[in-house]
Amino acid sequence: MPYDPRISEERWYRYWMENGFFHSTVDRTKTPYCVVIPPPNVTGVLHMGHMLNNTIQDILVRRARLHGLNACWVPGTDHASIATEAKVVAKLKAEGIDKRDITREEFLEHAWAWTRKHGGIILEQLKRLGASCDWERTAFTMDEVRSESVIRTFIDLYNEGLIYKGVRMVNWDPEAQTAVSDEEVVYKEEQSKLYYLRYRIEGEEEEYITIATTRPETILGDTAVCVNPNDERFRHLVGKRCIVPLVNRPVPIIRDEYVDMEFGTGALKITPAHDINDYEIGYRHNLETIDIFNDDGTLGEKATLFVGRDRFDARREIIPALEAAGNLVKIEDYANKVGYSERTDAVIEPKLSMQWFLKMKKLAKPALAAVLTDEVALIPAKYKNTYRHWMENIKDWNISRQLWWGHRIPVYYLPDSNDFVVAATAEEAAALASAKVGRRLTPADLRQDEDCLDTWFSSWLWPISVFNGVLEPENEEIGYYYPTRDLVSGPDIIFFWIARMIMAGYAYRGQKPFHNVYLTGLVRDKLRRKMSKSLGNSPDPLELISRYGADGVRVGMMLCSPAGGDLLFDESLPEQGRNFTTKIWNAFHLVSSWQVADAPQPPHARLALEWFEQRLRECADTLEVSFGQYRVSEALMILYTGFRDDFSSWLLEIIKPAHGTPVDRETRDRCVALFEHFLQLLHPFVPFITEDVWQQLRPRKKGESIMISRLPATRSFDVALLEEFERVKGIIVAIRNIRKQHDVPFKDSLELKVKWHERYPQRFESVLLKMGNLSAVSILPAAGESGDAPSDDTLSGAWSFIVDTVEFFIPAAGEVDVAAASAKLTDELAYTRGFLASVMKKLDNEKFVNGAPADVIENERKKRADAEAKIRAIEEQLSRLTAPKS
RNA sequence: GAACUGUUAGCUCAGUCGGUUCAGAGUACUGCCUUGACAUGGCAGGGGUCGCCGGUUCAAGUCCGGCACAGUUCACCA
Asked: What is the predicted ipTM?
């Protein structure tokens, strides 16, 4: 019966849920291992990035559980202020409702309805992947605890003097009609035009000053033209005024160091309302500020021309007008970078507005130190530089958003005043306000700030707030689970989220939020393109799961995704993963098909099991090292090749009984035990099939599960035995090659003769007999030994090979191709002589012998001895081949 | 423009302290095998001047300098 992932996955996930295996509670006798999920957008759907990220988290969490740690993976979702609001606005628009026509309360009703309808779908999708989250702990950034935590945090920070309000030049998103933070602006290189425009000098008929701009429509808001103080070309014009074209406004010609004499004409038009640099120059020179744009990116009344036109239309339309007026000098092609809103992809408009800011310098200090000292380890460490650079140059965080969906800023304005109080509720605000003004005020007298807080102002509290550590800092859960252990995230949100969580951690708990940050790469397609809807190159994760099974997809994702490296995904990966699960299933199928008999254990089986036990210990040991360094792909690869090659191709092939014959009990029991151990090691990667097989390998009690089993402690392993078995493998491979070269079918048994050598793994002869299908193995005395030296007669008609300087012979079933065999030996001889020469070169070098450490020299001597022995062996075989037959 | 990271097999990547037969893995490829767990497979095999140039060293894929190319982040000039 083939393995059906759909049935198995549904069944075992339900089993795990019913038994509460995912749930964690405080248990002081156990070490906690905690991971908080990077909360996906509440109305989002699962994409490949989530798949990779959550697969890694599940692997870490499941492994921790098998190690006996109290594993707790906290799931949840993020309200995603801008993204969700944009979706709701679009939905309302489709229904013919304009957001501006409804009240805040009505809008929020729609938004909550949308959230209830689409919210949490993504969490259900994660279950299909096998995510072992503690679903009883599912949190939402806008649920009651998290909301109150955000408000409390705002109030605390305000009271500490870290939050302030002010008019600043901010990044305005005309699409979402809100300010966004610097981090939410994405710059893209663009081919645009540079327009040269001349402004007539006031009082002169034919004298002009020419400026260059990429945004000609903004001249309507110009309040100066600026040149460099050292620029001789304009010296005679400074202090005069020029006339802004079309609007005919006289503006001063001023001087400022900021202006680059090399660029354009060396004269810069100044629009303080619509450019951050212009704003600063305007501030220094006390210039008037004319804001010509509306919030939606159309031109406003103050523009006086093109009023109501979109800024891009105005840009196009103003050119003919300027040309007609004689102000257009020339147009050049120009490549520049334009800022776009990360969320809406609208071109960002620098805009002056009143916003709330959080001072960052003080918060950043301990968070920077933590990463630099590896108190919080970034994996891979290359991101430390990026992090440091950002933290050292950190700017204040604009935390207000002109949105409705989110946490409303807890600021209440006094009647007819810009004065305000900060309080968690309107009632508290009224009390504070009353005290402030000296008369009784009710909540109705106050006006709450209209703005919401940036989404990240709630996410940055996530590792604390999911355990209610903001509102109840002394509670048992936060004390036990915090700091969490590992955070798995993408490098794209290092600043948005990770850095800020570290800051919040130190600010609120005096402690880091997590020990390690594992940064995954991006999932790309085979051509290294980002996965995107518009390219249509992003597979549907759930469809992949139905096609290849969750285990198959997990393996596919992990086969090739080192920390920080991109995952180049294509369907051959989950296919390979699926094939691997099939391999596991088939191995189980073989073992479970055996009839068991109470019979003595054959030596080859005993030896193979003895070897594999050591091999498995080695595997488990290497795995510890790989996980210790978060080399999760490498860990999987160890298991992948270990299972396929060592377990299936070697162990099972050696111990499996001939068709129709039973296996002895001892062999089967040992095999099952080793199989179980291997399944435990595999479980974090392929949780479903390992559970399925584990449940069937032997009778299980109700409520038992591989996922809550304990992984055996790592033990030392016998290196000499492992090396010896490698020689066994080498001999078997060589015999297979002989068969192949000479067309000897496997069913024809062969005889093997060995020239005695201490490296011949004689102990494993029974394994050689079985795997080589040998009728007999006989030992020939070593050269130089007295007694029966092998007669050339015995060996002249034999095929031969050398494994690790041990010489083997197989009496030929047919003619020996002397020419071919000697050609091969001659090649090998040449190579070995060359190798010996390189070793000798070192050993003959006095500087090497004097300078290199003793063990290195010893090694070289050993190499020399080995090479010499090998050369002797080859020469001997060659001479035997070419000697005339007696 | 700056900083950082990278460049090893057709592809995706390991390669720790400079030192073993160190040039490796997976995949792709080639040949043979439908043998009684598994063709979603087995067995075997071919494949690399370690980006380029120079330096240090007894010894360099590994350390240093320069160059080329790629990627990431930050800044930005209108």
From this structure: 0.95
